[in-house]
């Protein structure tokens, strides 16, 4: 399977369109590129061109004749404008796919005026030159395609590994030799295969670059990520977005600094605030007990908290919740920046946000957030623990950031993780739109079919608007690739449902609540998997399964007690501590984090004075056999009373 370079030629004159297409086709073979599949497709109108760009994700270049007549064509998306000139046509193409190069053909005499008017085109060519000598534009297009398709680290990494040099450095298995020659652990080598071991290299390979310093091939790969994501800087992290979050927090915050944080943030944010010795001001959880899910915080409360804390240094929010609810981050960024406050968005579950117009309005990068983290392994194509940090802050302290980065980054990073981030970017750049377009179409079809069910239901934005009264007012969105299924009408226990789905389709559920199951569609989500999921759901819905019936799915408590800090969290966390039974902890100051799953929202944070409401909440969860992190054999840690 070869990479496909499909060139779309747009011209409303049949004669010129035929001439242009024939000229480009005739010169493709001149470049002798057996490693790519080059083809040409045509559009005789702006309407047809926009349709093809929307529907055909394999188009990798647009050759647009500036003299193409433009009529009133709805450009779609979130704009009410009508196409009035060719510049707006180009903007419409870029709205659908910002990464798609557009090459304009026109009258050379008007060339400078066309460049001034066209805006975001890649280059200008004189039309008659292209018809008589098309090599220049085809060479330009192929060169740009190669640049976008480049993988500087992965390419250099493969070349080095294939040289099969003797290993006189770490790691100690020497390309797998210690495994291969062992009667005890050779099965480990056979299971993973040769390439895993010969590609497990040491930082002694200078030519591949340093992760901590961002040099050579690694530096070039990070620069490519920054270009693809349209940010100032991007950095690779090989021990997860938990570490990425802590790096950003420790870069931006000093002891006692106020940080406005969504209580629902991942626990790494809470721990990062402790490490930075900052003072959090928590936004309240907005929780729906019927489904066991939470929404983004209310923007009215965010506004009130910002006004009450004008000296806050940072706002930290989760851009996309576990269940796919999306904050309108443009409002958040505008509000925070108007007060001189930086914005950091944990977008772990939404790394593809910039690569399709359906998601882009909720993208943290597009909204202008100063710092964004992406778990590249969660929903796009990278290995586990591979993460990205993106920086758009004009006041970015790069030197201090690198020091904090080095505190957290191993001096012996896993090169396979770095390579996976390099090719992950390549895929998003070259086919991210195409894959997402297909996934969205498949989900829509699945929803239409499931809508015919009598007991199961896929929840959508209208359902969330009924659960949370601020969805419409705050323009809360939803990612349809997070398929949240209402199972409350089924008479089976979660365990029985889970067992059936594993046995029926080998489906490991991402998350359960007492009334929902969450299924994630990622870039690896194939249509056949969706069909198998539908088949299993259909059997659950019509009752044609032999499962034990149960009424034991109990709802969660109706509300989560608020956080009231009595001490700086870092002082409480690093203080002398003692373990006491959680039932006897009322009135004491917590020294650790206590987080029930689900819903994964911290109930107690370091520095918080524990109240009877927290104990009552834990008691309500105790009978449901939920995982509660921070409780050890019935004890929690509190500050020692001196």
Automatic annotation (TrEMBL):
Its cofactor is pyridoxal 5'-phosphate. It comes from the Bacteria. Gene3D superfamilies: Orn/Lys/Arg decarboxylase, C-terminal domain, Type I PLP-dependent aspartate aminotransferase-like (Major domain). Coiled coil: none annotated. The keyword Lyase applies. Transmembrane segments: none annotated. GO terms for molecular function: transaminase activity. InterPro entries: Orn/Lys/Arg_deCO2ase_major_dom, Orn_Lys_Arg_decarboxylase-I, Prn/Lys/Arg_de-COase_C, Prn/Lys/Arg_de-COase_C_sf, PyrdxlP-dep_Trfase, PyrdxlP-dep_Trfase_major. Keywords: Aminotransferase, Decarboxylase, Lyase, Pyridoxal phosphate, Transferase. Residues 373-387 form the Orn/Lys/Arg decarboxylases family 1 pyridoxal-P attachment site domain. The keyword Transferase applies. Belongs to the Orn/Lys/Arg decarboxylase class-I family. This is Aminotransferase class V-fold PLP-dependent enzyme. It comes from Alteromonas salexigens.
